């Protein structure tokens, strides 16, 4: 079978613009770690299963809302900053097109392009104001002004995946179990599975990614369990 060069295939690169994947992964991991640690802490303090469900449910709702709002604000602020810089670059191109063309040519020369060729390309780009703006923004800011992440996509992804991650360690209690170790074990499986899924996007070994997330979550749960045990709750409320 003939191996088709990657450059001739459509979409041979994954989407790395950060629109939904980053907040989804971060949300799921944060939901898992947060509620595993929260359940371990209150469980270590000796509270009743009913109180653990209440605490975990509150952590799920509060955390999901916080994550969604935080992602929306963060992405929107970043997009507004990019828009402000693009507007600044547009003004510079309108006022000083020759100087901007020389700046672009200098950047390409610094990368190894011959001066004559760099100057010719910069002049050709300058003839189309919109293309000139896109090229200058990519070269000077390192971003694509036409491909910015959606704050709504980031917020919704973060909210939903945090909720799913935070629900995992609660499931045993919601299904009638009363043992803390079972909830922590299910949460650990969730962490390992989430890490393994992430490996599909990063092209790293699934088991190392899964173990890394499991170890990090276990460390967080161990710390909160210890604190909960030291503080304790009289009577196991």
TrEMBL record:
The record's subcellular locations are:
Endomembrane system
What keywords are assigned to this protein?
Membrane, Transmembrane, Transmembrane helix
Q: Which InterPro entries match?
A: Ccc1_fam
The membrane spanning regions, by residue number, are: 152-174, 180-202, 214-233
An example of a Pfam family matching this protein is VIT1
Does the keyword field hold Ligase?
A: no
Q: How is it placed in the membrane, per its record?
A: Multi-pass membrane protein
Instruction: Record the organism.
Output: Micromonospora trifolii
Q: Major location, coarse class?
A: membrane
- The name this protein carries in UniProt is VIT1/CCC1 transporter family protein
Taxonomy, superkingdom: Bacteria
């Amino acid at each position: 079978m003939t191996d088709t060069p990657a450059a001739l295939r459509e979409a041979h690169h994954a989407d790395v613009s950060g629109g939904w994947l980053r907040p989804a992964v971060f949300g799921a991991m944060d939901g898992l770690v947060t509620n595993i640690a929260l359940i371990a802490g209150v469980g270590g303090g000796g509270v009743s299963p009913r109180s653990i469900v209440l605490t975990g449910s509150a952590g799920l709702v509060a955390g999901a809302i916080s994550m969604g709002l935080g992602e929306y604000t963060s992405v929107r602020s970043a997009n507004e900053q990019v828009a402000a810089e693009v507007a600044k670059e547009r003004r510079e191109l309108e006022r000083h097109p020759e100087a901007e063309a020389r700046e672009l040519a200098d950047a390409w020369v610094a990368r190894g392009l011959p001066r004559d060729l760099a100057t010719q390309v910069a002049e050709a780009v300058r003839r189309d104001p919109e293309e000139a703006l896109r090229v200058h923004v990519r070269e000077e800011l390192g971003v694509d002004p036409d491909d910015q992440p959606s704050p709504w996509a980031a917020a919704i992804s973060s909210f939903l995946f945090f909720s799913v991650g935070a629900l995992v360690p609660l499931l045993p209690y919601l299904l009638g179990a009363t043992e803390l170790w079972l909830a922590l074990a299910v949460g650990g499986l969730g962490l390992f599975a989430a890490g393994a899924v992430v490996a599909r996007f990063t092209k790293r070994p699934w088991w190392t990614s899964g173990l890394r997330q499991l170890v990090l979550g276990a460390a967080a749960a161990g710390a909160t369990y210890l604190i909960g045990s030291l503080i304790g709750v009289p009577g196991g409320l």
